[in-house]
Amino acid sequence: MLPLTSRSGERWRVVLAGVLAWLAFGAAARAEDGHALWLRYAEAGPVSLEASGIGLGDVSAPDSTPIQRATRDELRRGLAGLLGSAPRFREGDGRPGGLVVGTPDASPWIAPMRAELDGLGEEGYLLRETRVGGRKTLVVAARRDIGVLYGVFHLLRLLQTGVELDGLDVREVPHVKLRVLDHWDNLDGYVERGYAGRSLWDWHTLPGWRDPRYTDYARANASVGINGSVLNNVNAEALSLSHEYLRKAAALADVFRPYGIRVYLSARFSAPIELGGLDTADPIDPRVQRWWRDKADEIYALIPDFGGFLVKANSEGQPGPQDYARTHAEGANLLADALAPHGGVVMWRAFVYAPDAPEDRARQAYSEFAGLDGAFRDNVLVQVKNGPIDFQPREPFHPLFGAMPRTPLMMEFQVTKEYLGFATHLVYLGSLYEETLRSDTQAQGAGSTVAKVVDGSLDGHALSGIAGVANVGDDRTWSGSHFDQANWYAFGRLAWNPDQSARDIAADWVAMTFSRDPGVVAPVVDMMMGSREAAVDYMTPLGLHHLMARGHHYGPGPWVDGGPRADWTSVYYHRADARGIGFDRSSTGSNAVSQYAPPLARTFDDVEQVPEALLLWFHHVPWDHRMHSGRSLWDEMVHRYTRGVQYVEDMQATWETLRGRIDGPRHAHVAAFLAIQRAEAQWWRDASIAYFQSINGLPLPAGEMPPPHPLAYYEALRFPHAPGDGR
Q1: 316 is catalytic
Q2: What digits encode the pLDDT tens for the residues 307-328?
Q3: Annotated catalytic residue: which of 390, 434, 567, 636?
Q4: By the 8 A CB rule, do 482 and 34 touch?
Q5: Tens of pLDDT along 273-282?
Q6: At CA 126, angle to CA 122 and CA 132, rounded to 5?
Q7: Is 608 assigned a catalytic role?
Q8: Which member of 172, 282, 412, 418 is catalytic?
Q9: What CATH superfamily classification does 58-172 receive?
Q10: What is the assigned CATH class of domain 537-583+620-716?
Q11: Domain boundaries 178-514, corresponding CATH code
């Protein structure tokens, strides 16, 4: 946490008072500590369908399979909370309930809908108000049990958010096949880039003890359509593939299975050496191929529905096929061939960069992968980060999207906020995800959006996927703060349907998490929708990137220089000098613009046409460059730094108006975190201005306050125990 100054001391005394007030709620506060996530099912008066003559408390639902029983359990929990009394389940009395759920094979009331349901695939569902057996009824129907469970969660969401359900007729089919959370959890319980405590998985007590939180985790994921979980860090230990740990993973798979969630494992490419005693991991060596086939057989004997492997190879020191002069495709295909008989997939990460610092690291993944298009097996997805550097507050979309039409590309978003203030900053990532997914690659003309690449529709791929680096830990809030839950929620909703609105998703989350009172929902959604842009403003405005402190990425460090690699420094990316600032990726610079489709390349290449939000990403620009606002570049930068801080102050003021309309413990907790964010946004603004002013020697615009400390003060700050740093 940033040290106190005289300017911030009073603010922190207010924060301390708020925290003490929060703690004073004691045991009574535990009911609203955030653990229930968006599945609180708080009673909110009469539900609309009760008034329309449909008895939601009278339910016909099968219970013969694990998924059917999980569906019943959720209906029991949800309807009891929302209606104030437990629902009655009909047990074969020959009459339909007011709510009928099931598949044609499991319910006689759904059977007549079989032909209509055939078009919904394995996971789709139908919600409809109709008449069954002469009775006005709400139906949740699907071809498969998992679709029914997803439909029930959708129904409960509508009830929680107060949507009028009379005349309801909804058909939902997921746009993306694999919707996966990647846990960067180590076997010792440490979470790399984790800001919510230790790992949720207690490997020590597995498989004997299956913590009830594992079921709650599965429920939360199923409620937003997430259907996969990678259990261990991409910086994988070979031990995770040992028989002992596979038995532990199998126990988690057993818990997750009734909620439609498959487990995956990050595989260390050198495991045949470390576990198998071989002298090589060369993908063309028959002994290596046999080892992976045997390992796949072993895994599927324990976990019949195992999803497959996630692999980080030849990146940041991880072993890989290039150690043996083989390509990424040869490495991925080795594992794909071992998994193929079992129906498993390989998610091969494209986050790679050369061992020696390149001229422009943004070009690396494209340079290594674009030429391999079509060389991967059919059960391989190349997993590509949303931008070409590394989960920055803002990046252009990765140029690989649209550049590999013969290869399924899997989006990788970061849900945990490694570069966006960790858990203490309120930064809603739904808008970031939406911005990326709606970006137009123009690979096949206008309208060739990233979403269409990812869902497979642009190039006709049946296999598709979206991954999110999880923000889940053992903290009672799950994610380290109440508002970071919204990023988990938004990721799941957009993974199911990338065309959804981030604002609408935020409104649903607020209504379910805090209150469906419009006087609460509207201002909180407004806060959320501007929060990411505010963070960009006070951290990395106008296309600046990677200015965080070294290693732990906590706080500003635009002065970071030296060390083992140039591209692990801030000065490598901002390139500020007396003349100007920004990384020249134009056709006269590194020519990274050429990796985009020609119409985009021309736009990005032109300093007058490139979007100002990406100006300094693609161009080195003079400090006196005239911006659209009429300000000089320097004045615009300072303006945006200050604007970001002001937005956090506005969020604080908005949140304060909701005191008494949101339960005390959570209101106090959020207020305390907003105060932290306000202080740290100011720190970002002041430290950044102090550094860049030392480079350009320019005065501040009229009315702008100078930093309260000299640059040396900010450079001297150290945070050796910041959470989440890689080890």
Answers
A1: yes
A2: 999 999 999 999 999 999 999 9
A3: 390
A4: yes
A5: 999 999 999 9
A6: 125
A7: no
A8: 418
A9: Chitobiase/beta-hexosaminidase domain 2-like (3.30.379.10)
A10: alpha beta
A11: 3.20.20.80
